[in-house]
Design goal:
By secondary structure, the protein is α+β, with helices and mostly antiparallel strands. It has 2 domains: 66 residues; 106 residues, Immunoglobulins (Immunoglobulin-like). It is built from 4 helices and 10 strands, in the order H-H-H-E-E-H-E-E-E-E-E-E-E-E. The strands form 2 sheets. Strands 1, 2, 3, 4, 7 and 10 form a 6-stranded mixed sheet that branches. Strands 6-5-8-9 form a 4-stranded antiparallel sheet, with no helix packed on it.
Length: 190
């Protein structure tokens, strides 16, 4: 885009806009229209400078989104339920926390001895009729799922100990449940 003139500038702008979410495109469009109305007397030079600033900012935002998306574990499915699981490492846990708004259920797994997060948790979710609607083994301490609205029993098994939580998934918002296991005492022989 450096040195782009007239139609080339707008062609480059369209490439950036196609990669942005619609809310961002709408906001940038309003900003450009507002600036154009206020700065029309400065003409073409001012618009080029403003557009370079806006598109430079958009490029930085896109790069940030690409990095965050790269840290998000892959989306998986069980039947009609989409889910992600992970959260090992700061980047991945931050990415999962940021993605939480796109899911209806958020689960967190830990052991209380030192507040350690755990993985390899066998998760089973049943609807109120007792039908299994979801089963998976967690790849980390976090699991996000897209369940339809309803009442569910979530069972989580870690090292042979099963904990159960009742959750109510609403039409809006996120239902959350935490599972904390007490460490088992292990006998030692000397």
């Amino acid at each position: 885009m450096p040195g782009a003139q007239g139609p080339e500038l707008w062609a480059a702008a369209n490439v950036y806009f196609e990669q942005l979410p619609m809310t961002t495109v709408n906001a940038l469009g309003k900003i450009c229209a507002s600036i154009n109305k206020r700065c029309i007397f400065l003409g073409n030079i001012m618009m080029k400078i403003v557009c370079k600033i806006i598109f430079g900012t958009a490029t930085i935002c896109l790069a940030g989104m690409a990095l965050a998306a790269g840290d998000l574990p892959p989306l998986r499915t069980f039947g009609s339920v989409s889910y992600i699981t992970g959260g090992v490492g700061l980047d991945e846990s931050d990415a999962i926390k940021a993605a939480e708004k796109d899911f209806t259920l958020s689960l967190l797994f830990a052991q209380s001895k030192r507040g350690e997060f755990v993985s390899d948790v066998k998760v089973s979710i049943k609807d109120k009729a007792g039908n299994t609607v979801f089963e998976a083994v967690s790849d980390g301490p976090m699991l996000l799922a897209r369940l339809p609205a309803g009442a569910y029993a979530v069972s989580a098994d870690y090292e042979g100990t099963t904990l159960v939580r009742k959750v109510s998934v609403g039409a809006k918002g996120i239902a959350r449940a935490g599972f904390v296991w007490q460490p088992t005492a292990k006998a030692t022989i000397e």
